[in-house]
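The freezer alarm interrupted the setup, so I double-checked each line after restarting. Inputs confirmed:
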Amino acid sequence: MKVEEILREKLQRIEDVINGKEPDRVPILGATAVWHGAYAGYTTHEVLFDYGKCKSAWLKVARDFEFDTFTVIPGLEGMIYVVAFLKQPDISASARFILGSTHLALMDVFTKWPGYELDKNAHPQFIGKEIMKSNEYDQLIEDPLNFINRVAMTRINKKLSNPGSAEYNSALAKFGVELAKFGAFMADVSAELAKLGYPTVPMAWSYAPLDLIGDFLRDIKNVVMDLYRIGDKVKQAIDAVKPLVVESAMISAPPKEVRKQVFGTEIVECFFPLHLNEYLNPKLYNEFYWPSLNEVFKEVVALGLTPFVLFEGKHDAHLETLKEAPKGKVVGVFEKTDPRKVREVLGDRIILVSGPPNSLLISGTPQKVEDFMKKLLEDCKAGGMMIWPGVDGGISRDAKPENVKAMIDAVKKYGKY
Amino acid sequence: MSLREEFVKALADLEEAKVLEITKKRIESKEDPFTILEDIRRATEIVGKRFEEGRYFVSDLIMTGEILKQVMELVRPLLGERKAESKGKVLIGSVEGDVHDIGKNIVIALLEAEGFEVIDLGVDQPPEAFVEAIKKHNPQVVGLSGLLTEAIESMKRTVDAIREAGLRDKVKIIVGGGRTSEEVRAYTGADEWADDAAVGVRKIKALVGVE
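Predicted 3D structure, all chains:
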């Protein structure tokens, strides 16, 4: 088969599932931050800070394993930058993740990196910090974009602490340069992947409004306490930032006219990693988290995008609420909720994504992986599903290659329709 | 309802303002601070139970920890040199390569409220740090915490180091964090595992032999 046909076949699988049809077999969406580097013999520091090494490791995995897509996200949560730079859409769209290089350019206080704050082979980590005080909600509510730029950005980034200073201007220029390098790198890898028969499904960026406040402004622990103490203020803040995350989706999606031509597909996924979902009890979830998130889902679907949602942790207690989401339009990756339970409660209302947990890919054997996959596919593949290996955060640095291979073989064996 | 019962109920129901108000009243009335500690323990047990029953979630544990912190700030100065009888000693830390600590800190808050002595090693602690601390503090239980999937290998290395130092029989080990499972327990060679804080506290109590 020609490379273009292989690429088309892989893309078709994903399109079919998203369009509610059963494809020839279940597609496998590989994703990782550093596993490709470990596989190619690099430290996490090397693979995160050296695009040449990252690219060669990325392509090595693409050649050695048969995923349907294989995505490397060499960064950490950075949605606040997409929002802050909304007025400059090309910068904004490429600023979705905090990269090693942009961390060094701006010295954000959220993240820690191998070779700098951490050991060379450690995984980079988003730790977070309180940026906005509880008595500053009114400023955020009054003009969120202004507050995020004038106040939050100067506190998030040590190098932007003094607006107008030489250090400030230089840091922003450096940040722009690093984003351009990253954009060129991703475009380059995408073209190389296409030569190997790997499609790239375009992604747009949005977020749960309350997570934007929790992750980047108040910190997780503080925003939880705010819900008990000053819930009305939080609600107003959610309403204030909601239009910003919708606008983010709008500006980061490739325009309709070019989608087919550039990516070979009309489908654009819109990424939503959920963070507070597992933390909140149903009362808080239903009052603060879900209504605004579902409104964003609806707006994103109206834009012609497909929400691609990581339901981190256990989502069991909140599954019923997904009946209110746009039917058959939302892709859900469930980290710790049994996919059988998702099927039972939601049927085909949600486009199901599941996969082996990293504990199995790390500590299991190929036989155990095959057994797991056989059962998963037999129980859940009817009606269409996708596999996201290392369902808890993408493939771990320590996943054993033979187990990843066994996972792919099992999908080929038991994932056919 | 007596003031004591009111206090336990308000704390278990996470009524922050009411708990603090009653605490101040009890302190003003010169009540024995150890009675307050006893009530904190009772309320914390109710919180843990509600969590396991699926009525409380992580948000509720975070709020519990926050209220406990404020109550303890009021009560601690009254305790002086006297010490409550310790239920047991627990050494806990996030393993090498992992700098997350929300889960670990919730566990510590709950354990202390239940009357345990806790030694917090902090985050990103190499195996040797656990070994040294076991020798120094002689804990009954060692808690290895981590959020990352990469923490699993670190937990295994830490258990191995404890074994190699000849200390494995002296301590019970529990691995904890969102990505732990029975599979991870077996792989790391720990005695127990917990992917949420309340279950972790219950299992630590069982390991120590306190019900």
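Quick read of the result. The mean pLDDT of chain A is 97.
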